[in-house]
């Protein structure tokens, strides 16, 4: 067994492994602890050459101990695309985009739920629930469906309707909540004993961070075991940032890679920017007042990340930053990425908008290699308007009259 137990990311206390209750007595988040010395003796980089292109190629660094319990729908090993045209236009060294929208449920949430649902299976649980702005709900729904586990999902009612509709298609009991993601979480906490649910919300169980860790492992492997200089990542609850940061610590401990950690940049949307505000408060800059009621919410709308302090410490440790973008900057970015052949969700687009802002401010250096994460694709956020009402789409009659 590769997992030793759990450790606290704040006070470093060590605890035996468990499947639920990821808070330490000190208030810190518990993460999975591995015997990296032992893993390093049996698991070599070269082993990967013959492994299947899925995130489970890193199974030695994942916490599922019974291989029969692995629940996989083909997640991970997503393409890393180099954006050469813009690389030349912008004052940076290299520009890459990680195409997380290609995961089985159309977002990188597949990774976390592949591991989380495998752990549910391993621990014999049969019912799970999640509060979500959409993609976590559809990922739980899909993986639980495949595993034969009952899923219940609670989603704020203003979330993207197409993502909401995916959930019952995968067989999940689907509920809309008049409130934010933390209101949805409170419903699950209140009902979990009566309903027998395991709450698989962000940082409530050990699997989701471990699944997202594979983004960091993959990126290192795809860049031939080098760190990029900068990772720009759309951040909501923060499990992705925490997972990638953990990946890089583990790779260093295995001596598979060295050099400085990538600088982590969290991008958020103006109006719900607790990480940007938290960082400003740490730096004693003036903070803006977070207005959390933004329209058309995305995976970044998480007013109360479960461990903000951990996210801020990762940004500080890595020399990163956090930045909020406006809706119009994000919409423009969707168009710019689209015209390069990339279908990007608002969250993925925010990384592009962040890239431009950090070039403008001079925060990015001419030598930097930068990786953007396109965490989902545009189609999941499409509005059901008729095509004739879209100014960019013309009819056959328009074509005829334009070509007389
Ligand atoms: C959940 C989500 C995010 C935020 O990710 P975290 O790792 O929870 O911070 C970003 N983009 C998309 C598309 C999401 O679904």
UniProtKB/TrEMBL annotation:
InterPro entries, alphabetized: Ser/Thr_Dehydratase, TrpB-like_PALP, TrpB-like_PALP_sf
Species in which this protein is naturally found: Paenibacillus alba
EC class name: lyase
UniProt name for this protein: Threonine synthase
Database matches in Gene3D superfamilies: 3.40.50.1100
Cofactors (names): pyridoxal 5'-phosphate
Tryptophan synthase beta chain-like PALP domain ranges (all copies): 71-375
UniProt keyword terms in alphabetical order: Lyase, Pyridoxal phosphate
Enzyme Commission number(s) of this protein: 4.2.3.1
SUPFAM superfamilies linked: Tryptophan synthase beta subunit-like PLP-dependent enzymes
Molecular function GO labels: threonine synthase activity
Pfam families, per the entry: PALP
Taxonomic superkingdom: Bacteria
């Amino acid at each position: 067994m590769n997992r030793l137990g759990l450790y606290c990311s704040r006070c470093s206390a060590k605890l035996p492994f468990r499947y639920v209750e990821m808070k330490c007595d000190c208030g810190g988040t518990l993460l999975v602890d591995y015997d990296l010395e032992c893993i390093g003796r049996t698991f070599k980089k070269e082993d990967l050459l013959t492994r299947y292109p899925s995130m489970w190629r890193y199974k030695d660094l994942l916490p599922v101990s019974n291989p029969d319990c692995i629940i996989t729908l083909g997640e991970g090993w997503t393409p890393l695309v180099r954006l050469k045209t813009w690389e030349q236009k912008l004052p940076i060294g290299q520009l890459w985009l990680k195409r997380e929208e290609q995961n089985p449920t159309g977002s990188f949430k597949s990774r976390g739920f592949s591991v989380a649902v495998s752990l549910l299976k391993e621990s014999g649980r049969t019912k799970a629930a999640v509060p979500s702005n959409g993609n976590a709900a559809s990922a739980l729904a899909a993986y639980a469906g495949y595993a034969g586990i009952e899923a219940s999902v609670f989603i704020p009612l203003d979330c993207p309707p197409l993502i909401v509709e995916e959930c019952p298609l995968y067989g999940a009991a689907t509920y809309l909540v008049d409130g934010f993601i933390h209101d949805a979480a409170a419903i699950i906490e209140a009902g979990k004993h009566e309903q027998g649910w395991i709450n698989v919300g962000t940082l409530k169980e050990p699997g989701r961070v471990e699944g997202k860790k594979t983004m960091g492992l993959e990126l290192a492997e795809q860049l031939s075991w080098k760190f990029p200089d900068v990772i720009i990542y759309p951040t909501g609850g923060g499990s992705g940032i925490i997972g990638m940061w953990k990946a890089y610590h583990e790779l260093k401990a295995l001596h598979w890679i060295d050099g400085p950690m990538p600088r982590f940049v969290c991008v958020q949307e103006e109006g719900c920017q607790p990480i940007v505000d938290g960082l400003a408060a740490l730096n004693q800059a003036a903070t803006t007042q977070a207005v959390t009621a933004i329209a058309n919410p995305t995976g970044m709308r998480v007013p109360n990340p479960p461990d903000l302090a951990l996210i801020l410490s990762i940004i500080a440790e890595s020399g990163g930053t956090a930045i909020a973008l406006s809706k119009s900057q994000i919409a423009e970015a969707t168009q710019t990425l689209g015209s390069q052949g990339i279908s990007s969700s608002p969250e993925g687009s925010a990384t592009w908008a962040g890239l431009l802002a950090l070039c403008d401010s001079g925060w990015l250096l001419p030598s930097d290699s930068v990786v953007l994460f396109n965490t989902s694709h545009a189609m999941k956020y499409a509005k059901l308007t008729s095509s004739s009402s879209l100014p960019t789409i013309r009819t056959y009659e328009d074509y005829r009259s334009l070509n007389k």
